[in-house]
Amino acid sequence: MEVNEKDSKIDKKGVLKRISGPVVTAVNFDAHMYDVVKVGNEALMGEVIKIQGEETIIQVYEDTSGIKPGEPVVNTGLSLAVELGPGLLTNIYDGIQRPLSVLVDKMGNFIERGVSAPGLPHDKKWEFKPLVKEGDKVIGGSIIGEVQETNIVHKVMVPPNLKGGAVKSIKSGSFTVDDVVCVLEDGTSLTMMQRWPVRVPRPVKEKLNPEIPLITGQRILDGLFPIAKGGTAAIPGPFGSGKTVTQQQLAKWSDAEIVVYIGCGERGNEMTEVLTEFPELEDPKTGKPLMERTVLIANTSNMPVAAREASVYTGITIAEYFRDMGYDVSLMADSTSRWAEAMREISSRLEEMPGEEGYPAYLAARLSEFYERAGLVITLAGGNGSVSVIGAVSPPGGDFSEPVTQNTLRIVKVFWALDAKLSQRRHFPAINWLNSYSLYLDTLHDWYDREVSPEWNTLRSWAMEVLQKEAELQEIVQLVGSDALPETEQITIEVARMIREIFLQQNAYDPVDTFCDMKKQYDIMKSIKLFADLSATAQAAGVTPTQIIASKSKNDLPQIKFIKDYKPELEKIAKEMDDEFNALRAAA
Amino acid sequence: MKEYRTISKIAGPLVFVEKTEPIGYGELVNIVTFDGTVKRGQVLDTSDNLVVVQVFETTAGIGRDSGVRFTGETIKMPVGKEMLGRILSGGGKPIDGGPEIVPEKRLDITGAAINPYARASPNEFIQTGISTIDGTNTLVRGQKLPIFSAAGLPHNNVALQIARQSKVIGSTEPFAVVFAAMGITKEEANHFMKDFERTGALERAVVFLNLADDPAVERIITPRLALTTAEYLAFELGMHVLVILTDMTNYCEALRQIGAAREEVPGRRGYPGYMYTDLASIYERAGIIKGLKGSVTQIPILTMPGDDITHPIPDLTGYITEGQIVVSRELHRKGIYPPINVLPSLSRLMNLGIGKGHTREDHKKVSDQMYAGYAEGNDLRGLVAIVGKDALSERDRMLLEFADLFEQRFVKQGYDEDRTIVDTLDLAWDLLSTLPVEQLTRIDRDLINRYHPKFKAGAAKE
Prior knowledge:
By secondary structure, chain A is an alpha+beta fold.
């Protein structure tokens, strides 16, 4: 390929001069920025990140203990790239796409160094079914065939950087990812696998504006602050506010066809939890294990920091690859703050001039480049695909004014603000309904009208209004006590409490409540509205707020969340409410 | 072994050596002073003309005339079964007057990361006998659950009570305690040692002591030595190991000291920018490995400077560990022991270790309900101070009372009181039954019928 020709002119071998943690310096060495190099006698994997006079500075993806000055450095001439093809799904990788299961076989229970492992299984045979015939014209990005990978059909594509041409020959049958399955007129041979440099976005024909929500089954998200398919969202919150649980709920229940989950600098046990849980959980749509549509990337906090920096790019490249097949992909990055810290750590080893709070000055640029790789697109092959990106942010001390949160908020369209106060009282998901926002409400308006109910958008505005009103009233209550409130306002407080406790609170660990579809969300909200309306009429008829608040029929409403076939019970409650209020009115 | 006498600069704990042969990064270094004392250090930065060595002890006595020997290997810890019952210095040398440890193995103290794929999901409930932990912030085997405390609070007693009472119900597998002290006073150390002796725990313990007057830099390796020992006991000898690290705040201070000596760009409050990664390399050394018998459970203790939970030390810790137990000054002043404030406390792995087959089916929802009630009652206290009790609604008055009961009966218990999980949950139901049943919105009706004292008793009569 092109890259190799260029590199043949340069001196591919050099000598180490200095080792300082994950950053090493080589001399007598020619390289280009972001070339992958092999460092030291053990050939540890590294990447060129700075060239300065005679010196080439390299970040190393593995532990550098024991490496000495004078050891060799070899340039591979390639950029950091991932292998894309059948075998990605259900896999769990480290930050540089080494399958962790293979690493266990090669080096045991602990991550040692100097072991390389290809991203895809190269010995496994896949049943390839061609979708084009001889003589057909293909271009870069065209789909030439498919493989039943799990319950997901894996489309085999022409690499997007190739010109394409007429198909000279194409085979059908069982092949490994290295076998040639198709040859073009100009002699280019294609396999089921392609390599793509992680730091370069994969090309698309056109970016579109997202208009369909990514349904997550989480009431506060779908109902109040929806994210669109192809959109971006950030979940910032202090520790213990439920970032990871929210991310995992999204990975489990969002109606994307493919999920890429990046555990970036987070806890090892959390990744294990995902690994044990996902194969057992069923996709609510297909009934197949959730794992079959998932790719996991786990670079835990104690794994090498440079690989943590790379993990986010590895993840988004895999997501883009599935998008190019025409799938809706959602990508969760937990947590982007750890990624930013990895940048900071490398930057400080390079003795670069620091920006805000020691983060490198290019932090904002890197964050926006990353989120901009999300989107709803027309693929090169002409289909529709999307990548939705949901990034967790871990602000130090829960302070949202810090650089990573602020730079993220400038880019993303949806903000789910986690609140430690809420999680302390076990209000989960602990998303603050006053601070959060979604900028997709307008574009998604029609969808909700069409697919849920023409009433939904009004119901949503009503609920938000009640919650806002409650916040104002609470300030008064803090000063004078709830008894001093006017009668109508006492009802507002009660209705707001119901919205909070019945609609907003959701139990991720309850088998039924963990996923709530839009119809049920609508029904629950409508029942609360029914109570509010009944209360208003009753009050007009002279019933006291105390009587209304003491009414019994509404007390069963919270139980609806835990019932699978809730309709009969809900109708019963609605009828009881109606009866009780009729009786109250009659008595007044 | 070659000895260099080419020291060019000494600054704080750092020694700069010139004109050496190629030296490996992270190598162990011995520095011999004029009187023959050997001091240990580690290579922090190496290049063809200068090697930077971080010395783990005081640099007193080191000068241009000192000899520097590079050992050609990274720091290793000799480990063996005989270590149980021994007391070692913060640098790993026996200080109990006993013989040197006969090593069965020598292990690298940095410890490699456990491959997440090789980990087994922690789900074995550890009963500590403390209601606020078992009931509302459950500890499980393989978890790392720190105690966030502050100066003047009884965190040591809480840690001791956990160490003493912890058990997995029905399990007879061998267990051990590894205790690492970093920069604590002799008095505090004695308190721990006495309690270990009193309860006979010492013979199943390995103790590492770096006291307040020991070199601060040594604190960098103390927890690593302790965890290397713990991993050996757990993953090679199949024991269930509880590691207590105290006080992590002193560890972080030492880290800052070295960062400053190296003239690094400081992060928040002067702590190094890599403190998260560094702390993770300690805390992440907890867990269970598929197919192996033992486990490492960690209880690090840290004191929050100025009681501030947003200070970088508790903050970064909280982002790495699987929850935190917060010790509160307010409860302590009220005379409540253990003064654990459940509101900011959390156990992330709780849900894996509770419920049917682990503790009891009602555990999760009872815990949520207790939290919700206490949180609301606690908020109302502020309101009462302004408007008085009379201005409260009936519901609010009950919640207010519930908050008091919660502290006096659920939180408060004796230093030697060991409550079973069933005791704890039944106690919780007792307290919840003071609230009207329709207020129990977190619990489904089935569970209420089965466990609520009112309904349970009614059912029994029929």
